[in-house]
Amino acid sequence: MITRVDHIGIACRDLAASIAFYERTYGFSVFHQEVNEQQGVKEAMLRINGTDDGGSTYLQLLEPLHAESPIAKFLERNGEGVHHVAFGTADVVAETEAITGTGVRALYEQPRHGTFGSSINFLHPKDCQGILTELVQSPVHE
Ligand code: CMX
Ligand code: CO
């Protein structure tokens, strides 16, 4: 079951400049920053609100680490903007299986490492109404 919106992923060219925009415009602040080599990104999570299942909702600002990053390819094609939508679930394996059972392609056979040590998978944008969709299982599910 999908229980919430976990985050909206936003592609940017300059992480510091993007963070500064969200700080001065909306008063959001950085909750967490990390580099994820496997995903090819330098990222910042800006926490927006808590949710009733104990999780939170974030904006995920994503700067490419190198030219082969999926974010670099996206920026080249589309410029800065919304890159993906991520839904939270208590069980990413079961949720991926349920969704692929409806005919939607998952990008990975097994979940991979996401922000905060979460487990993630992606659903192909061409099967999801044009939206790259991420499934996220938080490391500790409250
Ligand atoms: N949103 C919507 N559509 C997208 C898209 C996106 N973010 N990225 C690509 N597409 C579209 C392309 O425009 C293309 O459409 P057309 O065929 O109509 O031109 C189609 O998908 C396939 O494009 P492609 O060139 O074959 O594939 P790409 O090399 O662009 O790869 C994808 C697309 C989704 C497989 C790749 O970006 C990927 O593996 N993403 C998952 C990992 C990721 O995005 N990591 C960064 C975020 C990490 C995090 O959230 O923690
Ligand atoms: Co994400």
UniProtKB/TrEMBL annotation:
Its EC number is 5.1.99.1. Keywords: Isomerase, Metal-binding. GO terms for molecular function: metal ion binding; methylmalonyl-CoA epimerase activity. Coiled coil: none annotated. Residues 4-138 form the VOC domain. It holds the Pfam family Glyoxalase_4. Signal peptide: none annotated. One of its GO terms (biological process) is L-methylmalonyl-CoA metabolic process. CDD domains: MMCE. NCBIfam families: metmalonyl_epim. Belongs to the methylmalonyl-CoA epimerase family. This is Methylmalonyl-CoA epimerase. It comes from Actinospica acidithermotolerans. The gene is mce.
